[in-house]
Specification:
Strand content: 5-15%
Oligomer: single chain
Helix content: 55-70%
Shape: elongated
Radius of gyration: 23 Å
Structural class: alpha+beta
Number of domains: 1
Strand order of the largest sheet: 1-2
Largest sheet: 2 strands, antiparallel
Distance between the termini: 48 Å
Number of helices: 2
Order of helices and strands: EHEH
Length: about 80
């Protein structure tokens, strides 16, 4: 198990100054790698970004296919499934 605590950058507010409380993001990873906590955090961040890009590409491909089938039906009168 690897845990990372990262200080949040927040906008100034009088309440934060009065309470003098720090805000953090916490991350926990289960891994078998022997990397440092920060190296693991960076690798999982890159992986999450890649997965997001893949999901977006699938969505765009689906829209392209729907548009293409609509165009084929319009031009040929053939109904596609």
């Amino acid at each position: 198990m690897v845990a990372v605590r990262q200080k949040k950058e927040i906008e100034y507010s009088p309440q934060q100054e009065l309470l003098n409380v720090e805000n953090y993001d916490y991350f926990c990873y289960a891994t078998t790698e022997n990397d440092t906590a920060w190296e693991t955090h960076k690798r999982y961040g890159q992986r999450a970004t890649s997965e997001t890009w893949a999901e977006e590409a699938k969505g765009q491909l689906g829209l392209l296919i729907e548009t293409l089938f609509g165009w084929i039906e319009e031009k040929t009168g053939i109904i596609t499934c």
